[in-house]
Specification:
By secondary structure, this protein is of the alpha+beta class. Helix content is 27%, strand content 25%. It is built from five helices and eight strands, in the order βααβαβββββαβα. A hairpin with a 4-residue loop joins β5 and β6. The longest helix is centred in the first third of the chain and has 22 residues. It is globular, with a radius of gyration of 17 Å. The protein starts with 8 loop residues before the first strand and ends in a 16-residue tail after the last helix.
């Protein structure tokens, strides 16, 4: 089942109590679900990193909730036919979007999305191949047998992806490798912080999502990046 992204509605929320105390708009309580999701995905350290790496005050945009995202992932995983030669086309659910609060349009943002992967877990990420869909430089960070991180560089900017084997009940055998859970982070908000923090906090979000989506295979998502 294909589900479009929810229509964003800008919420005047600050990222954390520290930002709220600096003279910005106070949290009215509306959009608490979105704020809590962003906090969970990034973790305390990630929240602090975003705040300290952003030159201007940030706010949140209300996007898709975890319940809706989980239902969409389950529907897409269950629709997978291992015998089909057709190329899968799934839409991810945006779960966290942090923006510059007084900027319109919001060209500076950090976004985290999750959904069914259009690439199998064993795709040749990091190799010179069209299979993984990369048009520019691509680097694979193999975490373990359940998790892969990928850095993609296009036109001087970076996108970050994570792939997690996540078994959904009522799916064909090997669904967790044929249609793994895919997460992505795009960032035009934090300046010059390198790929390390992005991968670290994306990995944290993957651990949160594997639990929230109740992956039946109990994938091992570590708390730290592998040593390089």
């Amino acid at each position: 089942m294909r589900r479009p992204l929810a229509l964003p509605l800008l919420m005047a929320l600050l990222l954390g109590s520290a930002a709220c105390s600096s003279g910005g708009t106070k949290d009215t309580g509306t959009g608490d679900r979105t704020r809590e999701t962003c906090q969970d995905l990034l973790g305390t350290a990630g929240e602090k990193w975003v705040k300290e790496s952003s030159a201007r005050q940030t706010g949140l945009v209300d996007v898709t909730d975890l319940k809706t995202a989980k239902a969409a992932f389950y529907d897409d995983a269950r629709s997978w036919d291992p015998s089909s030669k057709a190329v899968s086309s799934f839409l991810p659910s945006e779960l966290c979007r942090i923006v510059v609060q007084d900027q319109k349009p919001h060209t500076s943002r950090l976004s985290i999305s999750y959904g069914a992967s259009v690439f199998p877990f064993d795709s040749p990420f990091g190799e010179k191949s069209d299979v993984s869909g990369a048009s520019g430089e691509e680097t694979l960070v193999s975490v373990n047998s359940d998790v892969k991180l990928v850095v993609r560089k296009n036109n001087g900017s970076y996108d970050y992806a994570v792939y997690v084997k996540c078994r959904v009940p009522g799916t064909p055998a090997t669904q967790e490798t044929g249609v793994p859970l895919a997460g992505s982070m795009t960032d035009t908000l934090t300046g010059g912080t390198g790929t390390g923090p992005h991968l670290r906090y994306l990995l944290n979000s993957a651990r949160v999502m594997a639990k929230a989506f109740a992956c039946r295979n109990n994938p091992t998502v570590p708390t730290k990046l592998p040593a390089t």
